[in-house]
Design a protein that fits this description.
Layout: H1 2-9, H2 18-26, H3 30-54, H4 61-84, H5 86-93, H6 99-117, H7 122-137
Helix pairs in contact: 3-4, 4-5, 4-6, 4-7, 6-7
Protein name: Vesicle transport protein
Transmembrane segments: 36-57, 63-87, 99-119
Membrane topology: Multi-pass membrane protein
Length: 138
């Protein structure tokens, strides 16, 4: 378990420095991180499933699907921040090999919510949800 903690925290081969020890002392414990990951990931899955169920409601179903699907994706992304920390997550998301997928995914998250709330275009919201899925898979 200690090896897994070191790999996820990025200190696989090096000894912890004084700064690393200070950061570890002020951060969440490993058990709390795992519990936060599980809770946040479960909320993300629940929102996505709820959005899929709400899709079949007449008139407002597509907008509700877009909103809950987007919130589910945000929660799922946030869940991994519990395991590796927010700064490392952001650094990995914006690595050159993942930069385009990250930008497309974040843009689609924003555009989905804009099309659902401000533009009131259900078809456009569905298109951005599909693009969110492909960007997350990419």
């Amino acid at each position: 378990m200690d090896k897994l903690k070191r790999v996820l925290s990025g200190r696989d081969a090096e000894e912890p420095s004084g700064l690393a020890q200070a950061i570890d002392a002020t951060s969440l414990g490993w058990g709390t991180r795992v519990k936060g990951f599980i809770a946040c990931f479960a909320i993300g899955c629940l929102c996505s499933i709820l959005g899929s169920c709400l899709l079949w409601i007449p008139k407002k179903g597509l907008v509700l699907f877009a909103v809950f699907y987007t919130l589910g994706n945000i929660a799922s992304i946030g869940s991994t921040m519990f395991l590796m920390g927010p700064m490392k997550q952001l650094k990995r998301m914006f690595e050159p090999t993942r930069l385009i997928a990250t930008i497309v995914m974040l843009l689609c998250l924003i555009l989905t919510l804009c099309s659902a709330f401000w533009w009131r275009k259900a078809g456009l919201a569905l298109l951005f949800c599909i693009l969110q899925f492909f960007a997350m898979a990419w």
